[in-house]
Amino acid sequence: MPARTSIALVAFVLIAMEPLPAQDQPKGAVAAAPIATDRPSVTDSSVVVPTGSIQVENGFLDSSSQALRTLDGPESLIRFGLLSKTELRFYVPDYYYNQTMGLNAGPMPGAGFGDMAIGVKQQLGPTPGRFDVSVVFYLSMPTGARAISSHGYDPAVQVPWSRALTPKWGLGGMLSLYCPTQDGRRNFTFEPTIVLNRQLTGPWSAFAEYAGDFSQRGGPRDLLHFGTALTISPQQQLDFHAGVGSLAGTTYYLLGFGYSFRIQAIRQR
Q1: What pLDDT does residue 20 have?
Q2: Which of 96, 95, 105 has the alpha carbon at shortest distance from 67?
């Protein structure tokens, strides 16, 4: 996607997020609930955003291996609470900047915007055993730069879940199936994750996570992932995360940070 098109999309969404002047902000307990984001862990949140609210999650990621370093952002996910257990999702295209490293790095891959995607999250339940479970469907569309886009319409399904173990400890995970287009063919990829969360103080939490990608073509990819999040207000969050993984016998590293916020765009009745 050309840069001006992506910027115009973001500007349009941000303008649309402004609450209507004649609407009062909701005072219900759901709307006042602390922000719960799908970042910085690979595992998504197992709950949807409150009805009528818009949540914008943003970040920056620096990942590197022996031969390649990639910078990407803004990693923006826009979530809108459509119903009490349903949210709409818009994945803003990321910009990828690739830089080769080392003497045997080879030619530098292209840089540019990736593909955009739209989706929906449906929270299930109530479920037995005090589990929170959701299902996410999304479709990626080939709007990105020639060197970055998959050049295909790529569906995906994710099933995030979580359960509180104690008032301070929680366990979660996600089962995902991706169907990316690679070299003109589907490469079905199964991705399981598991994450252990710890509430350090009221607004401050940390996590440790494992994520694995197992593709129809190509070797497995593994990631050990650690991070922390700070809720600076009930509607704002800062996060920081780092990880180390392996892919095709090569070790890679990632380091990222992010900022997320939520506003109430439509009053609950």
Answers
A1: 34
A2: 105
Domain boundaries, the chain: 3-264
Report which of 163, 187, 191, 164 is spatially closest to residue 175, judged by C-alpha positions. Answer: 191
Amino acid, res. 90: F
Which amino acid, 16?
A
Q: Which helix (H) or strand (E) holds 5?
A: helix 3-16
Residue 39 in this model has a pLDDT that exceeds 70: yes
Question: If phi over 0 gives left and psi between -120 and 50 gives alpha, with beta otherwise, what is residue 202?
Answer: alpha
**How many CA atoms are closer than 13 Å to the CA of 35, on its beta-carbon side?**
29
Question: In the chain, what are the helix, strand and coil shares in percent, each to the nearest 5?
Answer: 5, 55, 40
Token pair, residue 192, equals 């399981």
The sign one gets for the Cα dihedral 161, 165, 167, 168 is: negative
Which is higher by pLDDT, 139 or 183? 139
pTM, full prediction: 0.85
Architecture in CATH of 3-264 = Beta Barrel (2.40)
Contact by Cβ (8 Å): 58, 257: no
Residue type, 259: Y
- Residue of 204, 213, 123, 217 lying closest to 176 (CA atoms): 213
The residue written with tokens 């891959």 in the block is 109
* Cβ neighbours of residue 247 closer than 8 Å, sequence gap 6 or more: 65, 219, 221, 222
Q: Looking at the predicted structure, is the pLDDT value of residue 15 above 50?
A: no
What pLDDT, in 10s, does the model give residues 92-116? 999 999 887 655 555 567 789 999 9
